[in-house]
Model the fold of this input.
Amino acid sequence: MDSAGTALDDRLPSDRLLRATAAQWSAALAWTSADGTIVGANPGFARLAETPLDALIGRPLPGLLDLGGRDWQAVWEGARGDQRPPGTGALRILRRDPIPVDLHWQYLTDGDDTLLLCEMRSFDERERAEAVARLQQNVLELVATGRSLKQVLDFLCRQVEACAPEVACSVMLCDDENRMRVAAAPSLPAAYIASIDGYPIGPDVGACGSAMSRGVAVMSADIAADPRWAPFQAETLAHGLAACWSNPIKGRNARMLGSFALYYREPRPAAPFHRRLVEACVHLCALAIEHDRARAEINRLAYFDILTGLPNRQLLADRATAALALAGRTRQPVTVMFLDIDRFKTVNDSLGHAVGDRLLVEVATRLKPLFIEGDTLARLGGDEFVALLPGCDAAHASLLAERVLATLSIPLTVADLTLTPTASIGIAVHPDDGIDFDTLMRQADAAMYRAKQAGRNRCHFFRRDINEQAVRRLEMEAALRDALDRQEAGCTDGEAPFELHYQPQVRLRPPCLYRVEALIRWTHPRWGAVSPAEFVPLAEECGLIDRLDSWVLRTAVGQLGRWRAAGVPVPGLAVNVSAVRFARGDLPDQVRTALATNGIPANDLTLEITERLMMTEEVGVHDALDALHALGVTLSIDDFGTGYSSLSYLKRFPVAELKIDRSFVKELDIDAANRPLVRAIIQIGEALGLTVVAEGVEREAQHRMLEAEGCAIGQGYRFARPMPAAALEDWLAGEGKHWVECPEEDCISI
Done:
């Protein structure tokens, strides 16, 4: 101890003036060695620590300070690296009441000697009062400027934690089901927040649940010994939370709004300064919560229909303006669907407005689940509803309109009467029918009146060509259902609407038949041959794909069984399976049954699936793929390169084959840019041990290029067109014989 009363190590400067300055400095100063041991301090630090100066020398500084979660080595390295170690902390061990301090660090070096200087300034009563006043002012400014409740409460918690670094704050709200909802808790662990969010409020549910239930402040000075924490005590203690002081937040008329809580890392009561902070924060929280609810109510009255709770015309117009502005930049379609309840005036006039209102509420309730996030369903007034559908084109709008009409037409009982609601729908699509909202509304309204004139309970597009497409889709869906019914009823071959054609897939080197792919064909009495590209997606959208895929699988495997019995040399069979088909979960069982019934080995069947299926995270799909692989069925990725093409799934899933899409093969011998893409796909297949099939091979030049690049299998008009089963047998007996006989045992010469 020198004459100035400052305990200093011999390594510090010996200049008496410097020593006197350190002794009289208003801030608390401590010098430490590399391991954090205090080698010197000034009287200001002794006063702050409430400990004699001599007793401080040799003590570890990290044991006296809360360093904000960082270890001492990180602080030392941070100061030496000219970074910013923690700027706030709290004196914890030497005081019964830890107090917050501002920390400033300075790395000192003199030759081989190095020290770290820590300067601490405490918050005195005046500073604490100013901190509370600033907190109140800042929070009120955020509320006044219209910031969201989440932003306000998060800011409030962070400011309290800056003033009192030894605490962690939380704000809970009481929801309509009397459950706790975490509104803000920036420093609490995410896992802990998840464990308490949504927990029922009760008198024995921790400090916050008890405070909200009883309406009084609750102090849990030791969570480990407090039975009120039993439901999640282990979770709380595991995250280092040892004490909690929670205060109820009450609104006007003593209505319970939530709770404001301080958490501590060691068992202890709340300090006087903490009580002053919480007293201010509870009032601020109540003000912010009630202001947010009042604003929400004003917003509801201004922008939502009171009867149905749907957005009104004003909110619809606002959202439409934003959607159309975005669509103008992204060139995405926007659809406006105008819906009017048929004969609603008759219901109102004959049964009264109360019944009419109940019908409107029921219509709104039925419509809401049909629309996805981003859509806006609004009520304009009376019996008029409008749906704004960003990103929805005419085809999808047509399907949605069908679901709307089907959903509304379910009978309901009102005032002891059974009503069957129907509606007329008009549709307009941006930009073809209009580029602004008012124009689209007029066009959709006009289309709706044409739907009424055409007999009601139907949909009409503003544009004639789109309307014709919608009508055709409706007719085609009905025809597809009828065709499946007839096919499954066992009609004779001459009357069968569906037929399978088979296209050979050929091994390129040595040339021989590899297998055949089954392709469905539909002939309609009026439309003639309907392209699979048109009716297969429609079958997926209207829920018929399961029946269609099942018929194809049974029929194709049965045909292969008949060929085998007759000695027709068909080595194997490939069948396409829709991604939608996997959702039912019975595909592996159906495949197993079909193979067993016809005596076909599983490795003679290949199922072609799309990349879209491989990208799904549904467990059922993964299980189905694994089950099919375990059965011995080959899985092939159809149209490879045109979908998502995330190559990771090629390792994760049991696929054995890639099919190069015809779009890459089509101009292989014309466009040189396609050649590197095809070569890359072939090399990917080779690297992963997968067979590569090229579809759409039509010319000899394409054939030779694919063979030169190492492609194993080809399919296309170059080898043979798809043909009925009988025609394939003739082909095998005639033209197919010109192929060189394959010396491999597993190939059939053609």
The chain has four domains: 16-122, 126-301, 313-462, 498-729. Confidence is low (pLDDT under 50) at residues 1-14, 745-750.
